[in-house]
Every structure is written in C-alpha cells, then in structure tokens.
Amino acid sequence: MLRITRHPIDESNTLLKLEGKMLEPWIEEVQRSINGSVSSIELDLSALTFTDSAGIRVLADLLRHGAKLTACSGYVAALLQMEKS
User: Fold this and answer.
1) Are 41 and 67 in contact (CB under 8 A)?
2) Alpha-carbon span 42 to 55, nearest angstrom
3) Amino acid 48: pLDDT
4) Does the pLDDT of residue 1 top 60, yes or no?
5) Domains in the chain, please, with CATH?
6) Where are the extended beta strands (E) located within 1-85?
7) Residue 21: which residues within 8 A CB-CB, separation 6 or more?
8) With contact defined as beta carbons under 8 Å apart, do 4 and 29 qualify?
9) pLDDT tens digits for 8-59?
10) How deeply is 79 buried, as exposed, middle or buried, from its count of CB atoms within 10 A (0-12, 13-18, 19+)?
11) Cα(1)–Cα(51) distance, rounded to whole angstroms?
C-alpha cells in the first residue's frame, strides 16, 4: 500500500509525501500526483518503508529532473546511492 499526500507549499511548489511501499503498480499514480513541473516538487520519503527497483528508478529520475528531497529514510537513501553508481 502506498499513501500519497500533496501539501501545497506556495503558489508554485508542492510537497509530495509518500508513505508505505512504493511498488511498480503504483508508479503511474505517483507520476499523476506530480501534476506539473518536476522542479516544483519536494519529496518527503521519511515514511517510505520499501520500494522495488522500478520505484527507485522513478525516484532517481525525479531527482535528476529537479525534484528536491526534503526527508528520506536511511533505507531509501541507501537505495538511491546505489542507483547513482
């Protein structure tokens, strides 16, 4: 189960909080939740407890395209470091 919550920061920026497990079947929903420019998104991944390889690829791609990471669990941080290699 993945919970996606959008919190407006200001007129042009949004905090996207992902909680639970990010698996391939929910990637399309995450992408729909962005709804605009990736560079206007801040990601809070502190409550993301698991992600599969497809989820890590999407998160890494969002960060490469300008999304900002505001919080992250150690587990997800380690996976994102592996993706950079």
Assistant:
1) yes
2) 16
3) 95
4) yes
5) 2-84 (3.30.750.24)
6) 2-8, 14-22, 41-51, 68-72
7) 1, 2, 48, 49, 50, 51
8) yes
9) 999 889 999 999 999 999 999 999 998 778 889 999 999 999 999 999 999 9
10) buried
11) 11
